[in-house]
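Lecture notes, part 5. Sequence design as translation. It can be helpful to think of inverse folding as translation between two languages: the language of shapes and the language of residues. The source text, in structure tokens, appears below.
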């Protein structure tokens, strides 16, 4: 078989030549003692880009979110999350297992719960109730097809948070995709949140790593939890050099190509008989395709396209998710559309 066209995830992205060269040349030191120059440089760069005082480099987004939860809360507190939030649905229940938190989930199909629903969910002070300690948001929202939370909604949620003196943590694994969609700098989104986690290892293409940003005091505490969870690493310079490239030059702006390719894919899919695409949901680099009208089971469909070298993900009995990234270009997508056209024929 020729080249695989991998539309499963944006985490499949491989480090660019520039990243590999930067890693190769990187000076190294023991980061736990603050002696790795590239880790320091990356943390300062991320804090600057996100408009926060400080940032921490961590091995994964899951650890970044967990560190944020541990830092913002006490055991037995309650955190408010959208019911399909990655922190709630896809992080192995770390918030309960490790942070000892209760969760109040709310639905919000445009990526965030309604501000009024959040306000109603905040517990009054009462000896019977757990204390609400944190509001968690996600932007872009992974399970709703990479959709972007509107800034006006963030502003309203911030007002609720301020009124009740609650911090907001943002799971911004794909924050830059949201920023590009909205046509603003990432810090214009991050400013509504007390802490923000970003991933370097998704569309930005670095091999490993995430950052957690917030105030100096917040990060000072967070650093202890990072160490506790095993995220104190040593010669991280190789990874951080890749991360610096990921946040530099036009690498963030390049995400627009992934969005354009997702639009191209969505348009092509929509023109095929029996495939439904909710175009409103296609805002960034995800496309959700519904095969139910065709009665074509997602597993069968995926097997058929895999035989021809095209990969995607099943997210429901008749629902497929495609994700664009640097690893697929326009030609690849045109080819994938041909393969899909064949696959739905009978
Ligand atoms: C990938 C992802 C994470 C977790 O990042 P890992 O580095 O895979 O642990 C968190 N939130 C969202 C929305 C994600 O897509």
């Amino acid at each position: 078989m020729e080249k695989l066209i991998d539309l499963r995830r944006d985490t499949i992205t491989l480090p660019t030549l520039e990243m590999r060269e930067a890693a190769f040349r990187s000076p190294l030191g023991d980061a736990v003692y603050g002696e790795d120059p590239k880790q320091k440089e990356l943390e300062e760069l991320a804090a600057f880009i996100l408009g926060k005082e400080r940032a921490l480099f961590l091995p994964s987004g899951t650890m970044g979110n967990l560190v944020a939860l541990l830092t913002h809360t006490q055991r037995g507190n309650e955190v408010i999350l959208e019911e399909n939030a990655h922190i709630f649905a896809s992080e192995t229940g770390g918030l309960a297992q490790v942070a000892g938190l209760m969760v109040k989930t709310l639905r919000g199909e445009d990526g965030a719960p309604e501000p009024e629903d959040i306000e109603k969910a905040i517990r009054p002070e009462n000896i019977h109730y757990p204390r609400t300690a944190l509001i968690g948001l996600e932007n872009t929202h992974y399970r709703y097809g990479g959709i972007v939370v509107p800034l006006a909604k963030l502003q309203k949620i911030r007002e609720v948070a301020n009124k009740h003196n609650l911090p907001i943590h943002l799971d911004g694994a794909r924050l830059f995709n949201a920023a590009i969609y909205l046509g603003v700098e990432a810090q214009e989104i991050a400013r509504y949140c007390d802490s923000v986690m970003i991933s370097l290892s998704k569309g930005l293409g670095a091999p490993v790593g995430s950052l957690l940003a917030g105030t100096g005091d917040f990060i000072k505490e967070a650093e202890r939890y990072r160490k506790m969870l095993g995220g104190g690493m040593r010669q991280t310079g190789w990874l951080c050099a890749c991360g610096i490239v990921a946040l530099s030059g036009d690498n963030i702006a390049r995400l627009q190509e992934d969005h354009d390719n997702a639009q191209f894919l969505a348009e092509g899919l929509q023109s095929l008989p029996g495939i439904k695409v909710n175009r409103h949901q296609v805002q960034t680099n995800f496309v959700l395709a519904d095969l139910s009208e065709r009665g074509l089971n997602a597993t069968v469909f995926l097997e058929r396209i895999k035989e021809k070298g095209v990969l995607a993900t099943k997210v429901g009995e008749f629902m497929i998710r495609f994700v664009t990234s640097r690893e697929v270009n326009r030609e690849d997508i045109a080819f994938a559309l041909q393969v899909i056209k064949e696959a739905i024929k009978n």
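The translated text above is only one of many valid answers, since several sequences can fold into similar shapes. The CA atoms of residues 77 and 248 lie 38 Å apart.
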